[in-house]
Design goal:
The complex is a heterotrimer of chains A (507), B (494) and C (104). Chain A is an alpha+beta fold. Chain A has 15 helices and 16 strands. In chain A, strand 12, helix 3 and strand 13 form a beta-alpha-beta unit. In chain A, helix 2 (162-178) runs antiparallel to helix 3. Chain A is elongated. Chain B has 494 residues and is α/β, with parallel strands linked by helices. Chain B has helices at 6-14, 20-38, 46-61, 103-110, 153-160, 177-183, 217-227, 276-291, 307-322, 341-352, 355-368, 374-397, 420-424, 431-436, 464-477, and strands at residues 41-43, 72-76, 114-119, 166-171, 186-189, 209-214, 262-266, 295-299, 400-404, 440-448, 451-458. Chain C has helices spanning 5-14, 21-38, 73-77, and strands at 62-63, 92-93, 96-100. Chain C has a two-stranded antiparallel sheet with strand order 2-3. The two termini of chain C are 36 Å apart. The chains are: A alpha+beta (507), B alpha/beta (494), C alpha+beta (104). The interface between B and C is large, with 75 and 59 residues.
Chain lengths: 507, 494, 104
């Protein structure tokens, strides 16, 4: 039987605020245990919650970014359950009336676009942390994280492969950083995904029983976990087994998912509106106000890339699939245009070469490092200073490729120094590309006299190829160009080689 | 002196006829004398109390006194007071030393008032007789065999026995007004949102409201001046301009000060279930109001009979959730012996809570549980609106509503302790105002068989000043509010 | 909606309150009485009535995102419960609250 996997995501996005969602305690990462657990965080008797304005703004920004309904009224509810890291014995969340309603996010799978429907996004507070193993048989509770504002973003079960799920998660990850509501730090838990996975016979409309993979904090693990879970479910069903609804954890060491110790009873969260908080009213003018403070959104940017930069629809949607990449592209193209302002190149010429480099060499480097573009550490200005030399013929593209690893090394060193909180050593600063070209001796030979000498030598040494060309085999021409480039050690300007070679062969 | 009004005490302090320390010591010695038998206080800390009194004297000497500076008040043990044991009447919090001040406590501190001690109460304010307190029942000063009412029973007994100048209470379903009726003094539950709930240990968040418990309406108005006000730490605290609740009192003079006032009498409040003696006292009080110029109008609050069922869904539901934080992890009672986490939770909570609190947690858990929410919780919230709407209609016809506060006078200890439903009926006349969020008052209106009877006043939202005036007018022509029980000095046990 | 002993036990478990057989029986009687009282509500037609969660028709106020709290760990952990099981020690160590091992 052929199977189909059905995937939905619930993403907990930690909002970029200074303080907790319901109190004025700091949420800075890495503080000593319980030093940021104020009276509200530890739920002393008599304390009350007051909602953080910034958290509300973040949620509205997100709603605007996914073109969602933002209802005029939303309500906070209590989700009741006992757990040591949940000091009140309930989590304040939103249940029936969330702050953000239905919206959409478009992802790119190869050359295909796919729209993922977002069911809702709601504000809630995070729980604390249990620390295990410090004392035999005991867990330690740290409530610094308790009350950290989260936006839980829930999709419809719209994804049909691990690749789609990861593409969605990456796109969302970029979006929340781009609109500046989340720092995106997955190691610190600022962006965590719960993935609901079920399988069904292909063609079936009915959803299978799902299992929820909890707390995935890397895209690599997400792929592994979904692929393992899918295989496991299919094998279980093919062996005549049944899937039981369960919460599972992914073990990165074994690459397997495993059900959490089965709950003793089905959860009954007894949701009800929190009487300590009043309905949250969001007016049109408030939304408009938040909107003015927002950066350009993907749709608008796509249009701009096509109209102002002359990119094709395919190129513009590939670029806006990563907003940060699109922004980076714009910066590079603009820098480049500025650098060659006095020359004959148009903005579109600049855009073309910037796009080609960013989609090519740059993306390859980015993917192999698996880091977000915002943290890559290679300035647009510096890249533009390289691209201008291709554009003006100083170096060839292959010459530029020869310099590229040196530039990446600088970016890598910059990131590393930043992580360690160190200064970047002088020799690792973004140095002059021109000096590098000179040092590497990569400057193109554009002196037609010198090129003629090389061509004459090549023609003399490859009489057979010349004859082939003259007998009508056009392909032989490329072979001759290749020989000329080789003879010049790649430094000859290929356009000039072409021109002079053609002339000489016509004689 | 113990029977003086707050205004009189304030004047005596200002004129230096007495110092705060002397006044405080007067009450402390009465407490030492009578509290062992009445059990109105859970926690006393003379050193802390006298430090505040000394500070008040310094402030008075510096000419920076406010109306309540130097006056000793008893605080219900539901308010967190920094450094004070704050138990909420429960074993769960028997060793809980509050690390912060409730808004109400800060307000009294800022006014220079003196904290005499923390008063006994029904556990987590759940009760109408003070018999659910982990720290034992409280005697009604008018008859030691009887209960003072509840849940603010300790504050009630302390005010009635003149163990303090006045006290604070909280009222979720009648916990200020019913004891005020049973012990014969004046108590006010303000409009919901007028007094901040920050630091007041929650029972039912959408109903809880703190208020003054004192001898007279005038005393209550002076206390409300200190207690009311916006607090940004409580989302339900209302941001309104500050009012002076004493401002109208002076106009309540002359022959017919209440001329033109329309008093509504809800027929449902005088129906079956009301003790005949209580009914007589209430009717007499209404007659007195007529003499003061008021006009009497018959009204109806048709849904008020549903107050008790609605309340016993909503209050336990909120309470079951509010009381989940008492899990033995960060503070409060943890069982001494347990095997694992689940066992620790279940034992700590079984040991820390008393029977009535457990019952209400269980009801609340049940009505919120899957499959029952709509039939109970949602339904109750819908009827809550019907009950509130009755008042909206009624206040189109009248300015104030009057009736009995409680269906009977103080009952004997143990009489209803084993029958929760009978106990719940004690609040039949008071709960509706909590559900609607309206202000309610009880003022002493006479006696039935030697026991005090209270008259209830229910006003429209934010009508506290007017209600206090109306109560004050009555207290200008009657003396029920200055009647004191004769206390037997108990034999000192060896 | 009559309750039985099993219901009482499962509600008590949901509320994390240990209850023995005898207590469950007593509780059943008392809770049934209270539910009888509550049952009066079912006679009322509440179709189209908006539920009332708050008595005042006001909306949520928002707090500025400014740190106002300082570290009070020492103060707050002074009132930590006793660990239990004969230890006599407070249930805190290295700033953490101690509970029996949480199993996931």
């Amino acid at each position: 039987m052929e199977w189909e996997v059905v995937i939905g995501l619930e993403t907990h996005t930690q909002l970029k605020t200074n303080t907790k969602i319901f109190s004025g305690a700091s949420i800075k990462y890495g503080a000593e245990p319980n030093t940021q657990a104020d009276e509200v965080s530890i739920a002393l008797p008599g304390v009350l919650p007051v909602l953080n304005k910034k958290a509300v703004e973040c949620a509205i920004k997100f709603g605007l970014a996914i073109n969602a309904e933002i209802p005029p009224r939303s309500v906070f509810a209590r989700k009741n359950y006992f757990y040591p890291d949940l000091p009140k014995g309930y989590q304040i969340s939103q249940y029936e009336l969330p702050i953000v309603g239905k919206g959409k996010l478009t992802i790119q799978i190869g050359e295909q676009e796919k729209t993922i429907n977002i069911t809702r996004a709601h504000l809630e507070e995070d729980a604390g942390k249990s620390v295990h193993g410090a004392i035999e048989g005991m867990s330690g509770i740290d409530l610094n994280r308790a009350g950290t504002p989260l936006l839980e973003i829930v999709t419809e079960p719209d994804m049909r492969s691990a690749a789609e799920a990861v593409a969605y998660a990456k796109k969302l990850h970029e979006l929340v950083q781009w609109i500046d509501i989340c720092d995106g730090n997955m190691q610190e838990g600022s962006f965590r995904c719960d993935v609901n996975v079920s399988v069904r016979p292909k063609g079936s409309e009915k959803l299978g029983t799902r299992r929820e993979i909890k707390n995935l904090n890397s895209f690599k693990f997400m792929t592994q976990a979904i692929e393992y879970e899918t295989r496991w479910q299919i094998e279980t069903l093919e062996d005549g087994g049944k899937i039981e609804q369960a919460t599972v954890l992914f073990n990165p060491d074994t690459g397997e998912t495993k059900a959490m110790r089965s709950k003793e009873e089905a959860n009954d969260y007894r949701y009800f509106p929190d009487p300590d908080l009043l309905p949250l009213e969001i007016t049109e003018s408030y939304i408009a106000n938040v909107k003015t403070g927002m950066p350009q959104l993907p749709e608008a940017m796509k249009t701009e890339l096509e109209q102002r930069y002359g990119l094709s629809s395919y190129d513009s949607s590939t670029l806006t699939n990563s907003i940060a990449k699109a922004i980076y592209f714009k910066e590079v193209a603009d820098e480049l245009y500025e650098l060659c302002n006095s020359s004959d190149y148009s903005a579109k010429d600049c855009a073309k070469i910037a796009n080609s480099w960013i989609s090519g060499e740059f993306s390859t480097a980015l993917n192999s490092r698996d880091i977000p573009i915002l943290k890559f550490g290679l300035s647009a200005k510096w890249l533009a200073s390289l691209l201008i030399r291709i554009l003006d013929g100083t170096i060839s593209r292959s010459g530029a490729k020869a310099i590229w690893p040196g530039m990446l090394a600088v970016a890598d060193a910059k990131r590393e120094a930043h992580l360690k909180g160190q200064d970047i050593p002088e020799e690792k600063q973004e140095f002059s590309v021109d000096k590098l070209i000179e040092k590497a001796g990569l400057k193109q030979v554009s002196d037609s006299g010198a090129i003629e000498v090389i061509i004459d030598e090549v023609l003399a040494a490859n009489a057979a190829m010349v004859a082939e060309y003259k007998s009508g085999k056009e392909k032989a021409f490329n072979g001759l160009v290749g020989q000329c480039m080789k003879a010049s050690k790649g430094k000859a300007n290929p356009a000039q080689v072409n021109e002079i070679l053609k002339k000489k062969l016509a004689n | 002196m113990i029977n003086s009004s707050l205004k009189q005490l304030s004047q005596m302090l200002a004129k230096k006829e007495i110092s705060s320390v002397e006044l405080t010591q007067t009450f402390l010695s009465r407490i030492n004398q009578f509290n062992p038998s009445i059990n109105a206080f859970i926690t006393l800390d003379e050193a802390k109390t006298l430090t505040q009194a000394k500070a008040a004297d310094v402030r008075i000497a510096a000419g920076k006194a406010e109306a309540l500076t130097g006056i000793p008040f008893a605080q219900k043990d539901i308010f967190c007071a920094k450094g004070w044991q704050t138990t909420c009447g429960s074993k769960m919090l028997a060793n809980f030393i509050a690390p912060y001040d409730a808004h109400v406590i800060s307000q009294f501190d800022a006014a220079g008032a003196v904290n005499l001690g923390k008063t006994n109460m029904d556990e987590f304010a759940m009760g109408s007789s003070n018999e659910t307190s982990y720290f034992g029942g409280v005697k009604n000063p008018w008859d030691f065999e009887r209960v003072p009412g509840g849940s603010s029973g300790g504050s009630a007994a302390a005010v009635a026995a003149r163990l303090c100048a006045a006290a604070t209470g909280t009222d979720t379903g009648g916990s200020i007004r019913q004891p005020a009726s049973l012990c014969g003094f004046t108590g006010l539950k303000p409009t919901y949102g007028l007094v901040s709930r920050y630091g007041m240990i929650a029972f039912a968040s959408s109903l809880d409201q703190a208020g003054p418990m004192a001898k007279s309406a005038e005393d209550c108005s002076m206390m409300l001046n200190v207690m009311a006000g916006f607090d940004e730490r409580d989302s339900t605290s209302l941001n309104r301009p500050k009012e002076d609740y004493t401002r109208g009192l002076v106009s309540m003079q002359g022959d017919k000060p209440l001329k033109g006032l329309r008093i509504g009498l809800p027929k449902e409040y005088f129906a079956e279930g009301l003790d005949a003696g209580v009914a007589k006292v209430v009717q007499d009080a209404i007659a007195e109001y007529k003499k003061l110029g008021a006009e009497i109008i018959d009204i109806s609050l048709p849904n008020s009979k549903l107050s008790i069922p609605v309340y016993y869904v909503l209050a336990p539901a909120e309470a079951s959730s509010n009381l989940s934080r008492y899990d033995g992890v960060r503070y409060g009672h943890r069982a001494e012996k347990y095997t694992d986490l689940m066992d620790m939770y279940c034992k700590s909570r079984a040991e820390g809570f008393g029977a009535e609190v457990k019952r209400r947690i269980l009801i609340g858990t049940y009505v919120l549980s899957a499959g029952y929410y709509d039939a109970y919780y949602l339904k109750a919230q819908q009827i809550r609106r019907l009950i509130a709407d009755d008042f909206v209609q009624a206040f189109k016809k009248c300015d104030i509503i009057m009736g009995p506060t409680a269906p009977s006078t103080a009952f004997k200890a143990g009489e209803k302790a084993d029958d929760p439903v009978a106990m719940y009926l004690q609040d039949v006349y008071t709960i509706a105002t909590n559900l609607a969020g309206l202000p309610g008052m009880s003022i002493p209106a006479g006696f039935s068989n030697g026991l005090p009877v209270g008259l209830q006043l229910m006003g429209n939202y934010f009508d506290e000043a007017r209600m206090l005036d109306i109560a004050h007018a009555y207290q200008q022509v009657t003396d029920w509010h200055v009647r004191m029980p004769e206390l037997k000095i108990p034999e000192v046990a060896a | 909606m009559a309750l039985n002993i099993t219901d009482i036990k499962s509600i008590a478990h949901l509320a994390r309150i240990e209850i023995n057989e005898q207590e469950a029986a007593t509780t059943l009687t008392k809770l049934s009485g209270i539910l009888g009282l509550i049952e009066q509500m079912q006679a009322v037609d509440t179709k189209d009535i908006t539920p009332m969660s708050h008595s005042q028709n006001v909306v949520q106020r928002l707090r500025e995102d400014v740190v106002t709290q300082t570290n009070q760990r020492e103060e707050f952990q002074k009132i930590a419960p006793i660990l239990g099981n004969g230890s006599g020690l407070p249930a805190v160590q290295d700033g953490l609250y101690l509970v029996p091992q949480v199993i996931e």
